Amino acid sequence: MFFLPVLIFLILDKRKKFLYLKKDVNKAIEHYMILQIVINLLNIYSIIKKGSFDLGSGDIIAGTFRFPMTVKADSNNMLFSLSMILLLFVYLNFCQNLKKAIILPLILIIFLASVNHLIVIALVSLILSYFSIISFFTWCRIFIFSGIFIFLCKLLQPANFYNIVNKIYTIILVFIVNFKYLKDLSLKFQYIENLFSDFLKYPYMFFLGSGLGTYSSRAALYLTGDYVNLPISNISKFMLGNTYPLFLSLKKFSLGSFNYPWGSFFSLLAETGIIFSVILMILFAKELKKVINQKRRFVFILIFFILIGFMENYYEYFQATFIFFFTLICYHNSGSYFMFKKKANEDL
């Protein structure tokens, strides 16, 4: 299931007449963003009432992914943040007559949603995507923007800020002192170590995979009967040896996505094997080659999409990745429509 969006992209991208964006798409995107802003402004009252933007307060920011003014322990705020980051990318790069009155509130709401790993990944992707630029002023702008963001994070979300800093510091320290203690920092690191142990134990699994829904994908988690309430349960031996016991431990204590014993990138490799994974990536890269070579900003979204696969099973949330693949199809097939931006803007 996790590679379904990619396959849909590969199929539809061959149909040149499948989609051609009209100018009204600007209004459609703007109206959708305004809707998200309005709904989340209704929810922000609880954050103001608490007087804090830290930690769990951001869980209420989920827009249309959750019924307004309700709070649940689910992943909807993560899906909302991911979708809004991708949508903001589409808006900034593809639409005309950009409105700061929409952009700034949307950035604020993404920030208040407190999905720290997505924000950090976005900043890292932004910096990496500009490695090929030797412009001093461009780099100054990137560092100034990053500095302002870090300052606001420390000011408005001090607990989140120090939580991130402590995690990064601890990981670097363990890498320097003794790499073998890395697994003690998080269930995710234990999961990764167990995954490579399984590859050594079952060599065929590395090449051909354990089978769909048998290791750590969302389908595999659903089949446990514990991830959601289902009347069926079918836990494979591969999952029993790694993901499932770690998942049960996760119920007792949670440190966010940093601690989740799964991730789409690892699930893809474990369940389909290196052969299928490489074939899929080659086909995908082949379709993206022209786009990546022409648009530096697209490199940002590509890096961003790869990195999020290490944190969560995001590739399987079609409602969150739809905008990304929709953008790819529009970008590739209707590229001539998007060439209105001045060359000066392309070098930013």
Characterization of the model:
This protein has one domain (4-346). It is built from 16 helices and no strands. It has helices at residues 4-12, 25-50, 76-94, 100-112, 116-129, 136-156, 158-177, 187-201, 203-208, 218-222, 237-240, 243-250, 264-294, 296-308, 318-333, 343-346. It is globular and about 55 Å long.
Distance, first to last CA: 37 Å
Q: What kind of sheet is the major sheet?
A: none
Tell me, briefly, the overall form: globular
Helix content: 55-70%
Beta-strand content: under 5%
**SSE pattern, N- to C-terminal:** HHHHHHHHHHHHHHHH
By DSSP, the count of extended strands is 0
Which segments are poorly predicted (pLDDT under 50) over 5 or more consecutive residues? 16-22, 336-348
Q: Helical element count? A: 16
Derived structural class: mainly alpha
Radius of gyration: 21 Å
Provide the residue-averaged pLDDT.
Answer: 76
Number of folding domains? 1
Task: Give a concise summary.
By secondary structure, the chain is mainly alpha-helical.
Annotation keywords:
348 residues; mainly alpha; 16 helices; 64% helix; globular; disordered C terminus
Task: Please render the helix and strand layout as text.
Blueprint: H1 4-12, H2 25-50, H3 76-94, H4 100-112, H5 116-129, H6 136-156, H7 158-177, H8 187-201, H9 203-208, H10 218-222, H11 237-240, H12 243-250, H13 264-294, H14 296-308, H15 318-333, H16 343-346
Helix pairs in contact: 1-15, 2-3, 2-4, 3-4, 3-15, 5-14, 6-7, 13-14
